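FAQ: What does the model actually see?

It sees only this:
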Amino acid sequence: MSDCVGTPEDPSDWLSHPDSVSPTVLILGGFLTAPPLYRPLVRRLRDRGAAAAVVADVWTPDWLLAGARGVGPICTRSARALRTAVRLSGSLSEGAPLLGVGHSAGGITCRLLTAPEPMPGRRFGAARWIGAIATLGTPHRLSAGEGIGRRINDVASTIAEAVVPGAFFAPDVGYLSVASRAVRGDPAGTGRERVAHLLYRSVIGRAAVPGTEGDGLVPVVAAHLDGARNLVLEDVVHGVGGDWYGTDAALDAWWPVAVEIWRSALEGRARRAERIVPTAAGVA
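And it is asked to produce this:
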């Protein structure tokens, strides 16, 4: 059992009916965000059938310090939230693996939690406790350019691609990457389009040509994760608030897909468990 995610042995009552258990959700916030920003998302997820939702205790200063300290402390804080969510799942979701929701860089953090030892001395290995990962505007593919892309790339993305590339733990873990094409980047366009073009350049460098589509910060192409189900929304922007990924309209588009992918992963685990138990009994 890992030293950061260590938790009491979780119940497995969900194995007999993975198609009807409700998910406990772990929310990992994005770069420079703070937990209070996600309170409306918690409420909306519960309104849509989530048994509970836990937001990782990662604050804006933690992200600012990540440039000097690395992403290790952020992952450790996120692992504590995961442990809390696992315990809630034991009482509210019959011990079913969590549904992880990562907004922006939080999606990279969620992937890192599944790695056995993404950084020396930090063992997470949480794939056992996560049934699916849904990422919202997460920059999975970054350039080594300037700006926010470089900062996230330096502290998190390169590590994730080295230790858990793509949908690494599929099919035991389901993966959904959600992007948006709400804002077209154009250096000769409107003020919003010009700003978007500069931000897209900061994420994917010269690959951000005029006409590149994204959510105003992360281009669609950067938000796609290899091996994941990729979903592109039309009118969603990146930052928390306004028409972002956590609004009712956006949730109605991606949340049912996330739950479907989560249930599919759980059903696969349950089928494999059924095959293992008789074999072990026969050997005994």
